[in-house]
Amino acid sequence: MSSPKVIRFSPQGPDSGLEQRGVPSVAIDGTQPDTSGARFWTGPEGKTRAGIWTSTPGKIGGAAQGTNEFCVVVEGKIGLIDRDTNEEEIFEKGECFLVPKGANVIWNIYENTIKYMMVAEA
Fold first, then answer.
1. Rg of the chain over all Cα atoms, to the nearest angstrom
2. Which residues pair with 116 in a beta bridge?
């Protein structure tokens, strides 16, 4: 059995390209961001995955965060608004953040954005 290979992330997505996801059903304030993404890796049991996500400007959010999600902003600017306090934390190119499972946030995408993420269903 061979050992796992290192996986390189690219802003263009994996060799298969990005999958258009269209307008999220949880758009807020009448904004209609278009999103796309792809998985670079899925763990053996499918509970951990890593990939890329892109979005045009807009606000999205639904129920509380269902997974733990670690993100790296590759391009753009994202704000996370805490629904309980209405406080916003802003992240730009090169910055990282973690949205823990159960967090109740609105994603405020200020400009065309690319982020890498790793999601764990813990």
1. 15
2. 52, 72
Bridge partners, 106 (sequence order): 81
CA within 13 Å, CB half, 45: 4
Query: What is the C-alpha to C-alpha distance for residues 67 and 76, in angstroms, rounded to an integer?
Result: 23
Tokens encoding 82: 């805490």
* CB hemisphere CA count around 110 (13 angstroms): 14
pTM for this predicted structure:
0.87
DSSP element (H, E) containing 25: none
The candidate with the shortest Cα–Cα distance to 54, out of 68, 75, 26, is 75
Alpha helices in 4-111 (DSSP H): none
Q: What is the mean pLDDT of residues 87-98?
A: 98
Domains of the chain, with CATH numbers? 27-110 (2.60.120.10)
The whole-angstrom separation of Cα 98 and Cα 71 is: 6
